[in-house]
């Protein structure tokens, strides 16, 4: 099914992290007309090729993969997602115009809607400072599933989270056992999973997959260097996707936000990791 829309964003964002996540230091864009962009693939069972303005951006992009953040030129791009080997002459599974504003840090997610339709959603990553002793946690619901609650240590942290929404908060840094349950119940649909929320990190967790197909999973992306007083220099890295299968506004933009990468030259620099 093809979704054709023009996407502009003025929303909040966040980040996420499981113990297995890899920390990324949020590098500044190379110039005032750049943005930092990552891409997450959350459509289960479908390896895809991603095109931007007619040029291949990512080839053989597998589910559960998130790319390294990369500096991209600001502008508007026509993004097309094809089943691997079927583009660019074929019918795209998903197509959207994405506006990439200068100075943004964002992740574009290819995922299923609540009813199972493939779609693209752009999220702004909150890479602002966090208070001493704290970490930022963001959970994004991008699964074909009803609303969920997210618990940490058995206590709800986020309630009634619906696709394709996100919720974020600052929490005490440290390790915690987290799970995802059907909203208003104790029925676990994903997890439990150990979260290692390090001080000064911004952590994004994606709940993706399909409840009907029983392949719900978690993927994570972690950004480092958000300490109020930086204590260390973090090595660069990428957001790592991790699975936990089961039978389970950074600030408001004055202009629009959202992203996908977008020139063939830049495309070559993308690399995805899959755990």
Automatic annotation (TrEMBL):
What the entry lists under InterPro entries is as follows: DUF4397
Entry superkingdom: Bacteria
Asked whether the UniProt record includes Signal among its keywords, one would answer yes
Sorted UniProt keywords: Signal
Signal peptide positions are 1-29
Residue span, DUF4397 domain:
35-151
Write the protein's name: DUF4397 domain-containing protein
